[in-house]
């Protein structure tokens, strides 16, 4: 079965080649066709060697090298767009006489649709197969065959293979891409191929090849010169000659082979074929490719017209062409595909014309009239209507289908395929400039990466013409308004004058232009002279935004590309140059430094230059595009969009590549706007925040140093001297002595000095290393600890005692901070460590990778390290210690046995009477020492030498202020390699009780995210705002701006009560208001009272001389043992997941719908640790009912019981859920009751239906409207396709109600008046916020932040969940579950921020790309789920869940939810309490 031309071409190639190159591109995969063929066909009983090459990896370079080295019969399968960039290689292949046959399917290309008038900026386009590539290579020395259907393509492919080898000439064999439905293709290659090529042919070709030296291209048949023809006449063809085959030889060979083909198949062709009447007056000439429509129409309607079909186009044989042409002919019409109307003469027309003047083949009769007839489109659909007029026309040039409309582009908008790499920028251009946008060269990927016709140089000429045309129009307007003799109304004269004055300003030009157009239309009848001309050209009033788009090639070669033209033109033209080279695959060659284009352009002075990256900063791109448009002169925008050379590149990869490039300064973000200089402002703006900081610090240091040196010449000398001595100190002996002396200095400690090295990704390994240091000090040993990567392996030779604590990361890998060390050590065969004694303690988890064959990964690093040190000759102090998370006390179990042995081996006696680990909570001590949460935060903020808060305690204390220190984990390794500190930044969480914010607050958040953070806003699972990427120097400003908006960050994190959540939908208006007010009051009641927050962040200084006297009436100086979370639910909606929190209130209503009070729930919580069964998620118990008046006091006392009884020694066991499970729920109730002055009542009935949000419009009892938008994973950001952030900003500017954050990370535009609804709706549509046609699964999915900022993340979450859900969606839709809600949640670690353990399906990160899958949670959050399978990868997840979803669709009971079904079906056991969560049997 043949389903495309490439199938047929591949069959033929496979049957008759020795090597095949399959050139894959995003849109075409010939390699897949080849794979399907297997090794069925061979020419010399050997399967061809198949090489797969990527279209963007210079494939013909490889083809040329291989063909020239191996001298074998080579075929290439590709689409025609690869030909153009291959031209230099094609010349070379031809000159080497390699038997290479390039089988190409014509590539579909953009084609403008022509409806007569396309002056309005961007035109609509469609796609048609283009013959342009073929024509472009017609002079490379390749013979060219073209075919009109798939059978012919197949036949000619066999002929091309044979002709190539028998004439030692390379061929291109081209076929149209599409297969006609009725094409029945006979694939008889097994019979035909051996008849066309023999082994002898191959041997003779190889002989000829051996004799080839580089021959001059002039001897090829580019065009038969008289000399070449003479040579051809005298040089008899021979089997082994170094001379290229003559055109005649090639023509004859093809003809001969076609005869052979006919003998074996009955299918007849001639290289140049005439069909039609014997004595026609009119003959049409066409390449075979594209001739079908023509042929059919002629046969049906014009029996008197002849047709010459050219199968063999190169070499062009004038003699044979003239021989084929009947002598009676009076008119020759040359039909050719020519999309561009401005090409002077078309190639085939020139060939045909020249033939009549050939010396070689004189035409005997009168030279006929030759007409160039061009068609648009593929030619297949040329009709009688198209042909009729052209056949009768006398014009020398015709366009025969002027109103041709290309079929609409088949890619769907908002689906960005891998190929459409330029799409984000193009979408932005379209959004920003709308109707004014004019992209002169093609706007699809093909155009940017492909043909020269669409290249920027090509567009440049047209643009200059357009700019000049508008300038002429302006001149006309100017003259007209000055022409006092012209009868023109004052109003119109004014409008035209104003337009003329403001024609470069897009807005004013439009305003005055529109005025003028209106007036011109009113006076339409009486317009004469220049006014009529102005009216006719009224489209020129609009100021177009002219853009050219160039790609990588432009970026490299400034001199030869059109960049230079544009820069020096001074014309108002904008150039967008895309750079797609991924950072990790960057070219190290400095000559290829693309970013220097920017420098080059800036040197010109009057050019706007910007360097942007859409996945780094959307708003910066936006600003750059707008400024470029406004700048009156040339603008260059260098745009980064890495395109890794792999199939199905994930958006995360593109994002990471961009971040690396921007952060490391490889792709700095900046804008150079010379017009600012004129205004006295700085024209250069560096937009890369982090680089700005690094640069600033660097300059400051440099400055500082040079000042010192200038002022103190002595210091300069000392400095030089000290550098010298530093060099000397590198001498190993000196270094050793220095170390020994240092050790002695450390207080004359008696025992041997100990170096403790750790490798740890989390905190376990590092924690043990710290404990060793303390232990050593207690034993009078001097000890220091560092990460393994912070020492070199040579340091081991200088140490007497080295202790390693190394945990296991990834899949049996070393942690990030130990990898370099291990790389060096494992590669070493000799190291002077015979005097070194060592010990290794490993941390791992024997069940992390549960499959049997993965047992090797258990504690692998520690095992490998121990073995390697022994191999190098070091002496173990004790046996390898293996900490295992599966042991009763996790790694502590093995540690307890190992540590005493270690001290003993170091000669230390057991300590008597000394308490090793102070049995006081370290965290409590830290809180007490902090002076009510002050610590040294204020001092740390002033330290400009680092982006972090250095003091560990400060990083914990800032959490109480709503701030988390984080570092960008995408950048960790790269920055480490470059010797830079981690990319530190801060996450700031804003407390929003009940999730309600005013439009003014929304606008403030929006702007704060741009000014001080990473430009996006995160709506959290607990109804808070989060800013990410806040740099230390912006931190204070960030907090101050938040406070200015009347929100704050106090107690948004830390061991205190956090943001109080509340059902956000106010449609039950009265009840809702009461409940929400309660949430707000309770939140205020439980706030910490320390003044540290205001002092540190808001600069509210204490009165001079006054000592700090803070008091925390509720918390005391040690605050709570752990975080404390409160929610308020309003049935029937459990969107807040009331059972997943420490304390919950369920609103109970009276019969009339008013608030009766609350059921109180206690002891819920999600967090746990993988492998540690002592930790588990737990659902809250409903313990009582209280009235609204009692609710605050009840809440306070619940919190205080936890304050007094919560575990303060073990943070993993410190939540209220453990306090309750340890002491019993009855104890808890009694303890609570004993603190209350009133009696709690029995809980009252209620009913929850689900825990999801209500999307779309709802109307409240008070007739106000509320719209809930779907915000994917709560991330409010702009993308070119969905500018949500901009949209919400615009809505906030006019909205008079509130913005309500939902517990599922979505957003309600609440309290919209009926009169405003239509306006809001239209804005929702405009900014794509109205999209709700997702599947129920997508609408009910939720993910935590995880990578890159969360330090606990083990796997992706927010950035990954949507793509995983979309993989399941096809099944969901197929089985009819599109609108069924299934709750799916994902977190990057077991901490559970997105409340995964109550989801029906949950994915919890285990390691990069691996997730534990949990099933069976209750649909409305009433039941925990259970572990189904561990560490599944994406394909495994899909393979597991797909059949399960199908089964659910077929077997579910009426109204049965997925979580209930998997339990009933026996797929998973129900979890009935937190304690049995891990119980799998
Ligand atoms: C992402 C990840 C991957 C892990 N892979 C392994 C592994 O392959 N083999 C193993 O024995 N332990 C593995 N573990 C378990 C850790 O080594 C163990 O939990 C250790 O205590 C972590 O120490 P740290 O906090 O110092 O990094 C892995 C843990 C994580 C978080
Ligand atoms: S669940 Fe884990 S990975 Fe996700 S945000 Fe919370 S702590 Fe980070």
Automatic annotation (TrEMBL):
Biased composition (Basic and acidic residues): 106-115
A Pfam cross-reference name: POR_N
Gene3D superfamilies linked to this entry: 3.40.50.360, 3.40.50.920, 3.40.50.970, Sulfite Reductase Hemoprotein, domain 1, Sulfite Reductase Hemoprotein,Domain 2
The reaction(s) this protein catalyses: hydrogen sulfide + 3 NADP(+) + 3 H2O = sulfite + 3 NADPH + 4 H(+)
GO biological process terms held by the UniProt record: cysteine biosynthetic process; sulfate assimilation
Cofactors, names only: siroheme; [4Fe-4S] cluster
Domain of life: Eukaryota
Signal peptide span: none
Involved pathway(s): Sulfur metabolism; hydrogen sulfide biosynthesis; hydrogen sulfide from sulfite (NADPH route): step 1/1
GO molecular function: 4 iron, 4 sulfur cluster binding; FMN binding; heme binding; metal ion binding; NADP binding; sulfite reductase (ferredoxin) activity; sulfite reductase (NADPH) activity
Keyword match Oxidoreductase: yes
An example Gene Ontology CC term for this record: sulfite reductase complex (NADPH)
Residue span(s) of domain Flavodoxin-like: 754-903
Family the UniProt entry places it in: Belongs to the nitrite and sulfite reductase 4Fe-4S domain family.
Alphabetical list of HAMAP family matching this protein: CysI
Protein name: assimilatory sulfite reductase (NADPH)
Organism, as annotated: Entomortierella parvispora
């Amino acid at each position: 079965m043949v389903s495309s031309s490439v199938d047929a071409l591949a069959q033929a190639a496979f049957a008759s080649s020795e090597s095949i190159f399959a050139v894959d591109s995003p849109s075409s995969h010939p390699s897949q066709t080849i794979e399907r063929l297997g090794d069925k066909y061979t020419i010399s009983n050997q399967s061809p060697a198949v090489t797969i090459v990527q279209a963007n990896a210079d494939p013909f370079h490889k083809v040329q090298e291989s063909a020239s080295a191996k001298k074998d019969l080579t075929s290439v399968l590709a689409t025609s767009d690869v030909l153009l960039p291959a031209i230099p290689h094609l010349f070379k292949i031809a000159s080497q006489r390699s038997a290479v046959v390039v089988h190409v399917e014509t590539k579909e290309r953009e084609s403008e649709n022509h409806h007569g008038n396309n002056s309005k900026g961007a035109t609509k386009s469609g796609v048609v197969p283009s013959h342009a590539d073929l024509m472009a290579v017609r002079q490379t020395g390749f013979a060219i065959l073209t075919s009109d259907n798939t059978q012919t393509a197949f036949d000619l492919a066999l002929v091309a293979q044979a002709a190539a080898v028998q004439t030692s000439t390379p061929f291109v064999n081209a076929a149209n891409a599409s297969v006609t439905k009725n094409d029945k293709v006979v694939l008889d290659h097994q019979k035909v191929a051996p008849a066309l090529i023999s082994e002898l042919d191959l041997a003779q070709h190889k002989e000829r090849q051996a004799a080839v030296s580089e021959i001059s291209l002039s001897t090829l048949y580019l065009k038969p010169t008289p000399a070449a023809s003479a040579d051809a006449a005298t040089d008899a063809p021979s089997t082994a000659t170094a001379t290229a085959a003559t055109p005649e030889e090639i023509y004859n060979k093809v003809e001969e082979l076609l005869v052979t083909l006919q003998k074996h198949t009955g299918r007849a062709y001639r290289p140049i074929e005439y069909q039609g009447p014997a004595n026609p007056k009119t003959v049409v000439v066409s390449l075979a490719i594209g001739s079908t429509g023509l042929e059919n129409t002629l046969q049906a309607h014009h029996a008197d017209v002849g047709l010459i079909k050219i199968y063999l186009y190169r070499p062009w044989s004038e003699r044979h062409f003239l021989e084929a042409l009947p002598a009676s002919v009076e008119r020759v019409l040359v039909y050719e595909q020519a999309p561009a109307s401005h090409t002077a003469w078309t190639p085939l027309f020139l060939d045909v014309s020249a033939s009549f003047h050939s010396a070689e083949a004189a035409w005997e009769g009168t030279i006929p009239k030759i007409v160039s007839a061009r068609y648009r489109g593929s030619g297949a659909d040329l009709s009688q209507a198209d042909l009729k007029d052209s056949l009768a026309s006398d014009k020398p040039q015709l366009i025969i289908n002027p109103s041709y409309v290309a079929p609409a582009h088949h890619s769907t908008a908002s689906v960005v395929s891998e190929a459409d790499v330029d799409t984000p920028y193009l979408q932005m251009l379209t959004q920003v400039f709308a109707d004014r946008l004019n992209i002169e060269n093609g706007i699809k990927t093909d155009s940017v990466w492909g043909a020269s016709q669409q290249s920027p140089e090509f567009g440049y000429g047209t643009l200059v013409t357009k700019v000049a045309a508008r300038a002429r129009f302006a001149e006309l307007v100017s003259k007209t308004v000055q022409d006092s003799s012209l009868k023109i109304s004052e109003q119109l004269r004014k409008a035209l004058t104003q337009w003329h004055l403001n024609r470069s300003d897009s807005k004013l030009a439009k305003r005055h232009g529109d005025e003028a157009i209106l007036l011109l239309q009113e006076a339409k009848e009486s317009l004469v002279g220049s006014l009529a001309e102005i009216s006719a050209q009224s489209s020129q009033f609009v100021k177009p935004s002219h853009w050219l788009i160039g790609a990588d090639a432009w970026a490299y070669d400034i001199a030869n590309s059109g960049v230079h033209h544009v820069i020096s033109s001074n014309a108002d033209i904008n150039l967008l140059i895309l750079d797609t080279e991924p950072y990790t695959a960057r070219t190290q060659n400095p000559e290829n430094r693309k970013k220097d284009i920017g420098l080059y352009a800036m040197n010109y002075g009057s050019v706007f230059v910007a360097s942007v990256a859409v996945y780094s900063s959307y708003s910066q791109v936006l600003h750059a595009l707008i400024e470029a448009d406004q700048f009156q002169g040339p603008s260059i925008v260098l745009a980064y969009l890495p395109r890794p050379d792999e199939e199905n590149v994930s958006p995360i990869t593109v994002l990471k590549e961009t971040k690396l490039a921007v952060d490391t300064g490889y792709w700095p973000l900046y804008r150079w706007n010379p017009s600012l200089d004129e205004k006295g402002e700085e024209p250069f703006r560096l937009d890369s925040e982090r680089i700005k900081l690094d640069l600033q610090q660097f300059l400051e240091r440099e400055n500082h140093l040079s000042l010192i040196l200038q002022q103190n010449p002595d210091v300069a000398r000392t400095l030089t001297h000290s550098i010298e001595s530093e060099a000397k100190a590198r001498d190993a002996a000196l270094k050793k002595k220095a170390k020994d002396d240092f050790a002695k200095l450390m207080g004359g400690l008696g025992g041997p000095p100990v170096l403790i090295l750790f490798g740890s990704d989390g905190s376990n390994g590092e924690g043990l290393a710290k404990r060793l240091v303390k232990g050593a000090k207690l034993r009078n040993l001097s000890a220091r600890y560092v990460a393994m990567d912070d020492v070199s392996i040579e340091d081991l030779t200088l140490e007497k005692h080295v202790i390693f604590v190394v945990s296991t990361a990834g899949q049996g890998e070393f942690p990030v901070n130990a990898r370099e060390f291990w790389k060096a050590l494992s590669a070493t065969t000799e190291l002077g460590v015979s005097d070194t004694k060592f010990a290794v303690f490993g941390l791992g988890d024997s069940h992390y990778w549960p499959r049997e064959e993965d047992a090797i990964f258990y504690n692998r690093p520690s095992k490998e390290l121990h073995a390697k040190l022994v191999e190098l000759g070091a002496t173990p102090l004790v046996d390898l210690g293996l900490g295992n998370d599966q042991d009763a006390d996790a790694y502590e179990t093995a540690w307890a046995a190992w540590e005493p042995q270690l001290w003993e081996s170091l000669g230390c006696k057991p300590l008597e009477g000394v308490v090793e680990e102070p049995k006081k909570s370290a965290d409590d001590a830290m809180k007490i020492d902090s002076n009510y949460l002050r610590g040294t935060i204020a001092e740390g903020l002033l330290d400009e030498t680092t982006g972090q808060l250095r003091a560990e305690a400060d990083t914990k204390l800032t959490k109480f202020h709503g701030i988390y220190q984080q570092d960008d984990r995408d950048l960790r390794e790269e920055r480490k390699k470059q010797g830079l500190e981690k990319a530190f930044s801060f996450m700031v969480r804003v407390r929003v009780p009940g999730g309600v914010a005013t439009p003014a607050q929304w606008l403030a958040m929006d702007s704060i995210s741009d000014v001080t953070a990473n430009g996006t806003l995160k709506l959290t699972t607990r109804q808070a705002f989060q800013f990410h990427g806040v740099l230390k120097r912006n931190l204070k400003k960030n907090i101050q701006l938040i406070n200015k908006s009347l929100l704050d960050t106090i107690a948004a994190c830390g061991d205190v009560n956090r943001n109080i959540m509340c059902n956000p939908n106010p449609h039950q208006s009265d009840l809702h208001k009461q409940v929400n007010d309660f949430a707000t009051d309770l939140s205020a009641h439980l706030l910490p009272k320390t003044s540290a927050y205001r002092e540190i962040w808001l600069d509210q200084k204490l009165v001079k001389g006054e000592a700090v006297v803070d008091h925390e009436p509720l918390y005391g100086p040690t605050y709570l043992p752990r975080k404390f979370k409160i929610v308020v639910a309003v049935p029937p909606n459990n969107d807040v997941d009331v059972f997943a929190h420490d304390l919950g209130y369920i609103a109970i209503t009276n019969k009339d719908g008013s608030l009766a009070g609350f059921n109180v729930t206690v002891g819920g919580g999600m967090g746990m640790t993988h492998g540690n069964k002592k930790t588990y998620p737990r659902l809250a118990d409903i313990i009582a009912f209280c009235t609204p008046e009692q609710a605050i006091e009840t809440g306070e006392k619940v919190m205080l019981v936890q304050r007094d009884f919560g575990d303060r020694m073990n943070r993993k066991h410190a939540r209220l859920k453990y306090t309750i499970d340890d002491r019993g729920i009855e104890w808890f109730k009694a303890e609570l009751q004993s603190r209350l002055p009133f009696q709690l009542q029995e809980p009252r009935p209620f009913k929850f239906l689900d825990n999801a949000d209500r999307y779309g419009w709802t109307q409240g009892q008070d007739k106000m409207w509320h719209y809930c938008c779907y915000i994917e994973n709560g991330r409010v950001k702009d993308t070119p396709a969905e500018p949500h952030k901009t949209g919400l900003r615009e809505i906030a500017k006019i909205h008079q109600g509130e913005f309500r954050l939902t517990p599922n990370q979505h957003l309600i535009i609440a309290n919209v008046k009926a009169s405003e609804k239509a306006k809001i709706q239209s804005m929702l549509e405009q900014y794509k916020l109205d999209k709700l046609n997702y599947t129920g699964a997508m609408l009910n999915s939720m993910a935590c932040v995880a990578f890159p900022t969360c330090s606990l993340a083990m796997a992706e979450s927010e950035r990954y969940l949507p793509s995983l859900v979309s993989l399941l969606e096809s099944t969901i839709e197929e089985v009819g579950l599109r609108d069924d809600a299934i709750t799916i949640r994902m977190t990057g670690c077991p901490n559970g921020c997105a409340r995964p353990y109550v989801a029906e399906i949950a994915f919890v990160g285990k390691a990069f790309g691996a997730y534990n899958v949990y099933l069976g949670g209750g649909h409305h959050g009433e039941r925990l789920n259970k572990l189904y399978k561990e560490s599944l990868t994406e394909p495994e997840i899909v393979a597991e869940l797909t059949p399960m979803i199908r089964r659910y669709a077929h077997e579910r009971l009426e109204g049965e939810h997925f979580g209930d079904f998997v339990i009933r079906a026996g797929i998973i056991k129900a979890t009935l309490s937190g304690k049995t969560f891990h119980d799998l049997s």
